[in-house]
Structure formats: C-alpha cells, structure tokens
Amino acid sequence: MKILVIGTGYVGLVTGACLAYTGNKVICLDVDNKKINDLNNGKIPIFEPGLSKIVRESISNNCLFFSTNYSDSIKDSDIIFIAVGTPMKDSGESDLKYINSVSKSIGLYIDSYKLVVVKSTVPVGTTFKVQKIIKDEILKRNSKINFDIANNPEFLKEGKAVNDFMSPDRIVVGLNNQKNKKTFKELFKPFSINHDKLIFMDILSSELTKYAANAMLATKISFMNEMANISEKLGADINKVRLGIGSDNRIGFSFIYPSVGYGGSCFPKDVNSIINFSNKKGYTPKILEAVNDVNENQKKYFFDKLFERFKSKKNDLKNKKFGIWGLSFKPGTDDMRESASIYFVEKIINLGGSISVYDPRAIDNAKNKYFNHLSGITYCQSKLDVLKGSDALILLTEWPEFRSPDFEKLGSILKNKIIFDGRNQFDKEYLKKIGFEYHQIGVRQI
Ligand SMILES: NC(=O)c1ccc[n+]([C@@H]2O[C@H](COP(=O)([O-])OP(=O)(O)OC[C@H]3O[C@@H](n4cnc5c(N)ncnc54)[C@H](O)[C@@H]3O)[C@@H](O)[C@H]2O)c1
C-alpha cells in the first residue's frame, strides 16, 4: 500500500518505519526541515532501540522516503496517517494547532480518494473535526473529492516502541463506516500473526480508549505513590507492601513502583486533557483530578526531603553540589518531556546549588533544549564523574546501568555517603551496613 505519515516524531517515525519494513511504500512528512534533511542523510533524530536498523533497511529497499512536500506526498499516497503532536496548553487542554494545520493542508492538496487516519492522541470528537476541516478546504476549491476518516490510537511505549508496534497487544481502529475494515485488516496483518489483534469500534469510543488506557496506568502509579506516602508516615516499608499486593494477579506488578511520579509526553498531558474535556461536558472526574494532584505533589514531596536535609540557615542550597543519575522521563529513551529531572534541576539551581548530571541518552536534549537557560550544570560522560565533590547522589531514572553500582567506589568518590533514590532501586539494609544515609520513597530514612 502507498502510505503517508504526517509528523515524524516518536510515533510517526516508528509507524512509518514499521509499515515500510513490512513492505509498504511509505513517505514520512514533517515541517521540520532539519529533521527531514537528517533522515535523508541517514541520521535518526531520536533514540529508540531497533529503530535505526529498520529505517536503514527500509530506505535501501526503496520502501521508506522522507519529505517536506505536502502536495507531492499526498498525491503519492492512498492512506494518510496523522501523527503530529497534541501538546498540553497551560489550561490542561490539548493544543490542536498541529492537527488543525495538517487537516487544512490535506484539504488543500487532496487530489483523489484517500483514507485519512488520525493516530495522534486527540480529545474525543476531534477526528470528526479533522473531517470537517478537510471537507471545508475541498469545498473552498469548488472540488468534489471523496475521502474517509478513521481513528487508530497508538499504544507504543517509548524505549520499546519498535517492538510494541511490531507485536502489539491490540490494534484499536475507530470507523464510521464498515467499508475500510478490509484495508485495516490487510495493513495490520503482519502485526497480527498469531491471533487477530484488531478491535474495531466507533470513532468516539476509539478516541476515548486511548485516554482510558493512559488514565488507568497513571491511576495505578498515583495510587501507589499515595500508599507510599501513607507507608512512610506509619513507619511501614512500601517496597514490602508492593510485593504483597503485586503478587495478587488481579493487581499485578506493573505500574505499582513507588517513585517521584510519572512524566513523559503522554500521561501528564492525557490525564489533564481528559479532565479538561470532561469538565467541558459538565462532568468532574474526581479520581483523575486526584491522580494528577498526587503526581504533581510527588516530585515536590521528594525534593522537600532533600531540601530539608541540605538547606542553609538562609533557606537556600548555596555551596551545595548534587550529582544526578538519569534525566529522561524513563529508561530506554532520550525523551525528557515532563521528566522529574527538570523539576529537580531547576529547583536546585534556583536555590543557589550546583549540579553534575549524567544520562546514557538524554544529555544532548538536556544541554540543548531543557537546561540551556540554566548555569551551574556540569554534563558528565560517565556515572562516576557525577559523584566528584557531590554532597549527595540523586537517582531519578532507573536505567539498567544504575541498578547495581559499586557502592564502595561510590562512597569513596562522593563528598558524603548520601543517596536520594527516587526510584527505590537499592537495598536499604546493605546500604546501612556500609555506612550510607539512604533516602527513598515510602520508607523512613535510615
Ligand atoms: N510519544 C509517545 O510515546 C506516544 C505514544 C502514543 C501516542 N502518542 C501520541 O502521538 C502523537 C505524536 O506524539 P510524538 O511523541 O510522536 O510527537 P513528537 O513531538 O515527537 O513529533 C511530532 C512531529 O510532528 C511534526 N509536525 C508538527 N506540525 C506538523 C505539520 N503541520 N505537518 C507535518 N509535521 C508536523 C513535528 O515537527 C514533530 O516532528 C501525540 O498525540 C501523542 O500524544 C505518543
């Protein structure tokens, strides 16, 4: 099939590359000239395990192309996926300016029948708005061109995106007529090998399914963080409580790790968006408001512990230096959107402290995008460099290389043997034995 994917970010590039890898002819289109130039020169703009291999192979098989030209790309496609960002506005609502602009461009350049598929996460009802914008543009040209719309939310996880796309748990497709079922079955057949993964439904339910999935996972995380805070107040150990509840298979072990809260480009934005569009319909989603509040508070809660431990008489962190392990919002990605590290770094710097940071993949993003307005940050090449002269180590992202460090060595480089662990990775009894002061979430400090 001839496919156009509009928006070449985490979702668009993975979607385009996987569809090309399975034999379709795919054009990935973006308005970011540099990104498209880099891709045309074989440079992958994001870190995603396995992605560069399938991009390279698909290019050499003449299945994958990159472009900034709307008119030619639309002409040369049968199915158009929209995969642009839907970031959060200050009000919490999703900003649909990229979706609206893409829809206009499709309406402007559509020249024959196409199936237009909204893959971006969009507030319920948006796919029909896309349809209207395209229709209006076609009418403005006094043209008569037919097209269909569909919604196909994406469930991939950054860090495992290629694998998730290739072997999905399910593929949800929202349709307003039945005639395109066959097209989707054929398109997604390579990803439904051992059983049919396709779940067809109406468009509004499909749009809401994406939000419901993210809201459920965010709820598990905030629930566990609330239990962690209760646990700490009562002198219980949340790590043991986690084992105790996770082993109940109605609950399960995933998404119940206590932490500094969830970040990333999806959970915070999607929980806020569902609250916003529910409010607009006169419904107050009380659980989701609490999920959001607990999450916002969690970074603050852990930062306040650090501050109380190190603050000067003048209530600042002057002359204190901290080493941070992990900047991305989770392991396996270079994505720092809504990462707890942004909160910690800004707070420490604003309170007069200094920082050394290390992350296996996100250093460039940190330096060029998130912390370029801040001074007092040393970007390190290794996890041990971070420790030199640091008053404490702060662990914020649970990359595998941080899981089992040589604590004797750590202790010999750090100024003080103090660890603030925002991911509850280490064994508190062992750390106590070797003389560390160890702070974690949901456990009283020892
Ligand atoms: N990142 C994830 O893990 C993930 C997972 C599932 C769903 N989603 C959803 O998928 C959507 C895309 O997310 P992302 O993380 O890939 O975003 P992203 O910010 O990484 O990429 C978006 C891309 O769209 C491009 N773009 C913006 N306006 C454009 C236009 N008019 N024409 C062409 N390209 C344009 C941008 O230049 C950018 O390259 C969002 O709605 C998000 O909520 C994301």
Write the layout of secondary structure elements.
Blueprint: E1 2-6, H1 10-21, E2 25-29, H2 33-40, H3 51-60, E3 64-67, H4 70-75, E4 79-82, H5 97-109, E5 114-118, H6 126-140, E6 147-151, H7 161-166, E7 171-175, H8 181-188, E8 198-201, H9 203-234, H10 238-246, H11 267-280, H12 286-310, E9 321-325, H13 340-350, E10 354-358, H14 363-370, E11 377-379, E12 392-395, H15 407-413, E13 418-421, H16 428-433, E14 437-439
Parallel strand pairs: 1-2, 1-4, 2-3, 4-5, 5-6, 7-8, 9-10, 9-12, 10-11, 12-13, 13-14
Antiparallel strand pairs: 6-7
Name the descriptors.
14 strands, 14% strand, 16 helices, binds nicotinamide-adenine-dinucleotide, alpha/beta, single chain, 43% helix, six-stranded parallel beta sheet, elongated, eight-stranded mixed beta sheet, Rossmann fold, 2 domains, 446 residues
Highest CATH level, the class of the largest domain: Alpha Beta
Average pLDDT metric:
97
Question: What is the distance, rounded to the nearest whole angstrom, between the alpha carbons of the first and last residues?
Answer: 61 Å
**Which structural class should the secondary elements be placed in?**
alpha/beta
Ligand inventory reads: nicotinamide-adenine-dinucleotide
Q: What general outline do the C-alpha atoms trace? A: elongated
Q: How many beta-strand runs?
A: 14
Q: What are the low-pLDDT stretches, counting only 5+ consecutive residues below 50? A: none
CATH topology of the largest domain, by name, is Rossmann fold
Radius of gyration: 24 Å
Total DSSP helices:
16
How many domains? The number is 2
**DSSP strand (E) fraction?**
5-15%
Can you tell me the CATH superfamily of the largest domain?
A: NAD(P)-binding Rossmann-like Domain
Tell me the CATH architecture of the largest domain.
3-Layer(aba) Sandwich
Largest sheet: 8 strands, mixed
Q: If strands are numbered along the chain, what order do they take across the biggest sheet?
A: 3-2-1-4-5-6-7-8
Helix content: 40-55%
